[in-house]
Design brief:
The protein is α/β, with parallel strands linked by helices. It has 7 helices and 11 strands. It is elongated and about 60 Å long.
Length: 230
């Protein structure tokens, strides 16, 4: 789990560059308030080595040579997650966007669609590298939709669509082969959001996609345009 610190201590200090400045590759935050998502503990010592939290408590020791960071008046908490983003795929803007996310305390981002496959491959490269100065990345790859359905009306390169339940297993297999972390299913005619009706997947096809995703151990994300805009 990635963590961030509020107050004077910047998020980037906890996630980039510190291990190279200590003799042992470890740093320690002293006298910091820790919120683990459920409870708050005051005046804690947190030891971090090789990008992982190795010890938390009121009386823990750190290896000799560890970089000391004062935590008085600051709070350490699990990094925030942005569960629905879309990223530009050009290397400089993609990197800048993930750096900006981290600067604002978002340590994990979820790309809810990335099509076609060549765009998804760029995101998978970033995800695999897991650079410490960028927010971590999970991606869905190509979203499941009907021919002419959302988001095909937005233009851009074409991507695979589905017309029947029998195509679901192959679609899911292709997304997993591309490296998708989960399967995004779009079931929305967009009429409520935009006042126009577009083709959408049948309920039988949605069910087949969910079944295929579960069978392959993937997580299906069933979304509509209305929900995704919230």
């Amino acid at each position: 789990m990635r963590w961030l610190a509020t107050g004077v201590l910047a998020v980037t200090l906890l996630t980039a560059g510190l291990t190279g400045q200590s003799d042992s590759g470890t740093f320690v935050i002293r006298n910091v308030r820790v919120f683990d998502g459920e409870t708050v503990a005051e005046r804690q010592t947190v030891v971090i080595g090789e990008g992982r939290i190795t010890a938390v408590g009121s009386a823990v020791s750190a290896p000799a040579g560890a970089l000391e960071i004062p935590g008085t008046g600051r709070t350490l908490l699990p990094g925030l997650m942005d569960a629905h983003i879309h990223l530009p795929i050009f290397s400089l803007t993609t990197t800048a966007a993930l750096q900006q996310s981290l600067a604002f305390g978002v340590t994990t981002t979820v790309v809810m669609a990335a099509a076609p496959s060549q765009f998804a491959s760029r995101l998978k490269e970033i995800e695999a590298a897991d650079a410490p100065d960028l927010a971590a990345l999970l991606s869905a790859g190509t979203a499941a939709t009907a021919p002419g359905g959302h988001p095909t009306q937005m233009g851009g390169p074409g991507f695979s669509t589905l017309t029947a339940p029998g195509e679901a297993a192959a679609f899911v297999a292709a997304r997993i082969a591309e490296g998708s972390d989960f399967i995004k299913i779009i079931h929305d005619d967009t009429n409520a959001a935009y006042g126009r009706t577009l083709p959408t997947l049948s309920e039988a096809t949605v069910a087949a996609l969910a079944s295929a995703a579960h069978h392959r151990g993937a997580w299906p994300s069933h979304t509509s345009e209305q929900n995704s805009r919230r």
